[in-house]
Design a protein that fits this description.
Elements: H1 5-8, E1 9-15, H2 19-30, E2 35-40, E3 45-51, E4 57-63, E5 85-92, H3 96-105, E6 113-120, E7 125-131, E8 144-147, E9 163-171, H4 174-183, E10 190-192, E11 197-204, E12 207-214
Length: about 220
């Protein structure tokens, strides 16, 4: 994997049915306890973060019991998981409206560009723009794009001790996934597999760890 990847990958999305469950699992795998993140108002979710080096981080995301359940399914695959796993990933981007238009011209149906914000546990409000990750493209193996603008990047206030090493994608329709990646100017190792998956390798206190998210038509893990 190119050394440029830590500068391109914004974050990995690690969904859990309960935030404490997700934090505990990442601690078990890496030896690092995630930093409380914040809430996503109206989305029904909250998160915790682990910095992965540079402006890259792991987002543990789960239902927020202090918010009323949203009228639609929670975003980023949260409602589909019964055990913690990767569900998708985000890439840094700028000029997202132009990027989305170019992508859609190439048949990659990135979501609408939306502005959003969340409040950190210390009260600091973070604002960002992102291509809406719903619905997940190619079962979540195609990333969404995010631009934090002038907000401090979330990785800078998250606990360290884990390093991003590499990412690869697996999918039954490898030709189509590779076509979409080329349209997005992303050169990511991609292999054919029975089920779609995002596979990330990180290095924590116990050595290398493979985080895997498998999407199945039956909604299983």
């Amino acid at each position: 994997m190119s050394d440029s990847w830590p500068a391109i990958v914004d974050h990995l999305v690690y969904a859990a049915p309960d935030l404490d469950c997700g934090i505990d699992e990442i601690e078990r795998l890496t030896g690092v306890v995630a930093t409380p993140g914040g809430r996503h108002p109206g989305r029904g979710t909250r998160n915790a973060l682990v910095a992965l080096g540079g402006d890259t981080y792991l987002e543990i995301i789960a239902p927020d019991p202090e918010q009323p359940p949203p009228t639609a399914p929670r975003w980023l695959g949260v409602d589909a998981v019964t055990t913690p796993r990767l569900t998708t990933w985000a890439v840094k981007g700028t000029n997202l409206d132009q990027l989305r238009t170019r992508a859609r011209d190439e048949g990659v149906m990135l979501g609408e560009v939306r502005a959003g914000e969340r409040e950190r546990a210390d009260g600091v409000t973070l604002s960002r723009q992102l291509t809406d990750p719903e619905p997940l493209i190619a079962d979540g193996v195609i990333p969404f794009f995010i631009d934090w603008g002038t907000s401090p990047h979330p990785a800078r206030s998250a606990v360290g001790g884990v390093r991003f090493k590499e990412i690869r994608l697996e999918h039954p329709d490898i030709a189509e996934v590779r076509r979409m990646l080329r349209a997005l100017d992303l050169d990511v190792p991609t292999v054919g597999a029975e089920y779609p998956a995002v596979v990330a390798v990180v290095e924590g206190r116990y050595g290398l760890v493979e985080l895997r998210g498998v999407a199945r038509n039956d909604g299983g893990n």
